Amino acid sequence: MESCVPCATPMEQNLKLRRDDSDLLPDSSQYRSIVSSLIYLTHTRPDISYVVQVVSQFMSAPQSSHLLAIMRILRYLSDTQDVGLFFPATGTPDIEAYAYADYASCMDTRRSTSGWCVKEGSSFISWRCKKQDRVSKSSTEAEYRSMSEVTSELVWLRQLLEELGVVSIYPMRLYVDNTSAIKIATNLVLHDHTKHIEVHVHYIRQLVAEGHILLSYITSEDQTADLLTKAVATSRHWFLAHKLMLRKYHQFEGGC
Hints:
The protein is α/β, with parallel strands linked by helices. The chain contains seven helices and seven strands. It has two domains: 1-81, no CATH class; 95-243, Nucleotidyltransferase, domain 5 (2-Layer Sandwich), CATH 3.30.420. Helix content is 36%, strand content 16%. Helix 4 (139-163) packs across helix 6. The radius of gyration is 19 Å and the shape is globular.
């Protein structure tokens, strides 16, 4: 792949892979080996978390179209070898998070994709992209499931940082771009159409009421977690990657 043609994004925009897209690969061992290595790489490259989550779904029976998808990821990585996470030398212990969901994004099961990321100060320290374990009946429900997942992560991170002696007096702020989800979390009336997700609702409500979580609206254009739920255009990809503190190594000055 050293002499391959580079590409600016890890996946073609609006590309949707399915289980029966093309012919099965005669030998799937190479596919599994590459995807396993890419999964390991997502621990330091959140910009490929979504696409790796997509191609990892087909490891049991990979097809030629799926192999083309991971070849594009390798072409993208070949062109961005000098990109990595940037951690400034100065910062604050304040924690904030971004939660987003791509509603019914899986073409085979119509399950939604959750994407969230957490940062301490200006440094992103945790992120995840995952297909939800059940079908959501609305975009609000899908958003709520994503919010519930990142809220559990926030509580754990807050406890971990306190054990390490890093204490913040401010509530953890959670940014979402769904006003309906925010209203349900702050409204004590549980409406009939949300009863099937009331466990997620009550969990977030309790933390909001106790002052641990502060819900804030953010526009879809500024939603950082959008990069963890779908393939986007080149300009938006690098705009969101910059917000995730992904920089070129020669720019890493005053950080670690």
